Amino acid sequence: MKEQNAAVDKIKIRAVVFDYGMVLSVAQPHAALEEMAAICGLPLDVFDKAYWEYRLAYDRDLNANEYWTKTMDLVGVKLNATQIAKLALVDGAGWSHLNPLSVSWVRQLRSAGLQLAVLSNMPPEVKDYLVEHLEVFSYFQHLIFSCDIRQVKPEPGIYQHCLDVLQLSPHEVLFLDDKQQNVDAATDFGIHALVVDSIENTIARIRDQFDLPIPASFEFSASGVAEIIFLP
Asked: For the whole model, what pTM was predicted?
């Protein structure tokens, strides 16, 4: 009876919205960053700082040529078209490494009848590469990318667009993102939202708060600590 009451107390959710980077994916491998830095002829630390300076603008409405030109202008590097094309390719491939637990859970949520959406800040060249190469996007009914609607998280319009696409009330939606400011902006709309520090910890919090399935391979020790066991 206690378990039944606990289930009743959990929040009912009809749609789960995933950020892509660091939620569905893991971080770009160090080798990808080193390769891009080498293409630009820069030390890795100098390249990494420049890489992020105009990234949000790239996510919103720049193309690869505009982004890489503006980025390298910061450090006095001139790139040719071949270098920019190579950078765009390595950049996209670098973000193609998925978190297997996230993918497994997405499949489970889809099988359970949940609406699923990706809501991601992502530039066009990276988006095109990932959608072409990764099967995981086929599990989502809705793919919402900043470059397509020219709005980025945490701007309010992108969350309203997501709700309009889902055709659900905010309290029926759970949003998962690795950045606190993006989560805060979602909660301003009344959307349930959690910061993903790790997918394991996030699923543990979801297990306690929301009426959603969790992976069969996801178990908890007696102390409540999450343990991931991938069954053969």
From this structure: 0.91
